[in-house]
Amino acid sequence: KQEVTQIPAALSVPEGENLVLNCSFTDSAIYNLQWFRQDPGKGLTSLLLIQSSQREQTSGRLNASLDKSSGRSTLYIAASQPGDSATYLCAVKKEERAGTALIFGKGTTLSVSS
Amino acid sequence: NAGVTQTPKFRILKIGQSMTLQCAQDMNHNYMYWYRQDPGMGLKLIYYSVGAGITDKGEVPNGYNVSRSTTEDFPLRLELAAPSQTSVYFCASSTGWQPQHFGDGTRLSIL
User: Fold this and answer.
1) Cβ of B108 under 8 Å from any chain A Cβ?
2) Which residues contact A67 (CB under 8 A, 6 or more apart)?
């Protein structure tokens, strides 16, 4: 059974710092991996999607990497800002079948102070 | 673009009552999903649908029912509310090959 773990559970950094969030999964046979952002009281916003054949994806100050063989992904946030404060969720799609649901980690709550 | 719309946003139920959580999407997505998120936990799949008239169970379907009569709507029904069903419920939609789009959630308390 696929399990997704995110470390750390919470992280506090000063504004401007570069940071890395970690995600690990137990079964390397994934179809893709996705990083989401969740603001308090809101739904999920998709940040980056990495297919199993890819090594990384970039969007603005965000860079996500995938090492499928070791079961790990990282989300790198450059020059953090207070507006980046949110919970970041990692999720894997376990099969190459359209409509297969995502298996989520519990998230990392990030706080960026000004 | 409205995206995925969930109603109501908040609801308090008494044990044993029933209710329907509404979900509608305007992106013509075939795939729709219901998740629940308990405090400090990740999301767990309740039910999903791959098209109108087709639904299937996810990880935690007990105590819930769904229907999909149209592409746009995917309501979730709680028949006999129990305290264990206190949670935040999220509806999502997808083409199946794209990142899933989520609604803002329904926060449900059962007392």
Assistant:
1) no
2) A55, A73
Q: Catalogue the long-range contacts made by B14-19 (C-beta closer than 8 Å, 24 or more residues apart).
A: B14/B81, B14/B110, B14/B111, B15/B81, B15/B82, B15/B83, B15/B110, B15/B111, B16/B80, B16/B81, B17/B81, B18/B77, B18/B78, B18/B79, B18/B80, B18/B81, B19/B77, B19/B78, B19/B81
Chain segment A56-111, per-residue pLDDT in tens: 999 999 999 999 999 999 999 999 999 999 999 999 988 766 557 788 999 999 99
Write down the mean pLDDT value for chain A.
92
Write out chain A residues lying below 8 Å of B104, CB-based: 41-43
Q: What percent of chain A has pLDDT over 70?
A: 96
Nearest to A38 by CA among A99, A94, A105: A105
Residues of B in contact with A98 (CB under 8 A): 31, 50, 96-97
The stretch A2-15 carries a mean pLDDT of 95
Nearest-CA distance B86 → chain A (Å): 15
